[in-house]
Amino acid sequence: MNKFEKVTTGTGEECGVFGAYGLDGEDVAASIYYGLFALQHRGQESCGIAVTDTSGERKMISKKGLGLVNDVFDEESLSSLKGNLGIGHVRYSTAGASRAENAMPLVINYIKGTLAIAHNGNLTNAVELRKELEYTGAIFQTTIDSEVIAYHIARERIKTHSAEQAVKAAMQKIKGAYALVVSSPRKMIGARDPFGLKPLCIGKRGDTYYLASESCAIAAVGGEFVRDVEPGEIVSITKDGITSDTSLAVEKGQEARCIFEYIYFARTDSKIDGVNVYHARIVAGKALAESYPVEADLVVGVPDSGLVAAKGYSEGSGIPYGMAFHKNSYVGRTFIKPKQSQRESSVKIKLNVIEEVVKGKRIILVDDSIVRGTTSANIIKMLKKAGAKEVHVRISSPPFLYPCYFGTDVPSNEQLIAHTHTKDEICKIIGADTLGYMELEKLEEMIPGLGFCDACFTGKYPMEVPGKDVSHAFE
Asked: What is the CATH number for 282?
């Protein structure tokens, strides 16, 4: 691929999924609510919960809508969601797909009963699969990949003996990144793509089992972390316990976990595939201090995902660590706002510089990434206006050069500042005194021994990706 060729990826999501199965018959809607609350950082556009009672009529009840978890649900709506098996979802999308009908979980009724699905990720062959289904009479209600997955699972279930076999057969057709939580009338099934691009883990509290995108959500409901779902693994949870199928996994060494989970997306108190996210970010900060030393008075981080890397930089350099910003916690993440105009306006109300901390000082500012450059430029301008003498920017990821096809909201090359500008040019554009990015070869230090995907930095994708513009194929 030519470095300067314009590429636009499909509609991507970096979402959060959560499932709960109370084997003792207790209602699980409240647990799912708190689990989703802990995963709210993964998506603030829409959310939903679907539950069923495994001992009763096995009818699926669901509620979903646009907004945050505590906007969509209240005590009354949660108490109406009666059932001991259920799944939930928080979502964000790229521009053009902010629609109520795209909220998950998806609930479909078919000849074998009812199926609910929650999905985090992005398929690379969704367009072809969707067309194939449409030509055989399928009618789609949404514009998301998850409906394609749900149709395939439902169709395979008619031909197979169990829901797990149907999920497995569907996984052999779909390509891309995904963590799935599927609820059938008597089972909760979790599945992770063969490369392990998206995280998924198992938890337990008493007689209730959980599936979650991150371990922090299991801790939030008082559960005990059991283990990660392995790349390519399908787990099925029933009244008889957990069964596992790992036959679709790629060979060891070929896994491609999304490195951005450790750099940015995951919460610092989560542990993914045995690696503590907090520790990974400390390591990143120390690596930056080693690669880009500079004389300064204070190291500060951009809240929230730059804070731990800043602490690591401080530890690695011996320069004191300080808090330079007050963050308004009621403003959502700027990186995942659907429109650029929303991103720019929300930066100004999200952070405020504490003048007493930075005035007259040489500041090292640590952040997790520079995507478009707008946020960084605004923050540096604020620091200098507050009296900072110098601002040296250190970024705990390498430059974004290539689009992500697997669900991270980096939609097109033309919007990536590093794709069309050199490091020196970016430094000047954002108004920094110096600029240093994480070195590619040091990424491995963050998650030693684990295979990971760094295609957004290198252009080396773990699988074949579309070479054409598919961004509005579903609109």
From this structure: 3.40.50.2020
Instruction: Return the pLDDT at 372.
Output: 84
Higher pLDDT, 324 or 372: 324
Q: 230 and 246 in contact (C-beta within 8 Å)?
A: yes
Judged against a pLDDT cut of 70, whether residue 178 lies above it is answered with: yes
Q: Are 247 and 302 in the same domain? A: no
Give the DSSP H or E segment for 377.
helix 374-385
pLDDT score, position 330? 66
| Coil, strand or helix at 422 | coil
**In this predicted model, what pLDDT tens digit does every residue of 62-75 receive, in sequence order?**
999 999 999 999 99
Please name the residue ranges forming H helices in 59-198.
69-72, 75-80, 126-135, 145-159, 163-171
- What was the pLDDT predicted at 141? 81
Q: For residue 27, give Cα distances in angstroms to 23, 83, 185, 277, 428.
A: 10, 5, 15, 32, 56
Per the annotation, does 216 bind a ligand?
no
pLDDT reading at 17 higher than 70: yes
454 is in an annotated binding site: no
Band the pLDDT of 100: cuts 50, 70, 90.
confident
* Count of structural domains within the chain: 2
Is 208 found in the same domain as 279? no
281 and 243 both lie in a single domain: no
Task: Quote the pLDDT of residue 409.
Answer: 65
> Does residue 2 form part of some domain?
no
91 contacts 13 by C-beta, under 8 angstroms: yes
- How many Cα neighbours within 13 Å face the side chain of 469? 9
**Catalytic center residues:** 15
Same domain, 237 and 362: no
In the listed set 200, 224, 256, which residue is the last one of a domain according to the structure?
256
Strands (E), 59-99: 61-66, 85-91
Residue 317 in marked binding region: no
Task: For residue 453, say whether it is annotated as part of any ligand binding site.
Answer: yes
Average pLDDT over the chain, rounded to an integer: 88
Do 207 and 323 lie in one domain? The reply is no
Structural domain of 147: 16-256
Question: Which is nearest to 151 in space by CA: 117, 192, 103?
Answer: 117
Q: Is residue 464 part of a domain?
A: no
Helix (H, G, I), strand (E, B) or coil at 51: strand
Residue 201 marked in a binding site: no
CA distance 90 to 14: 9
pLDDT above 60 (res 110): yes
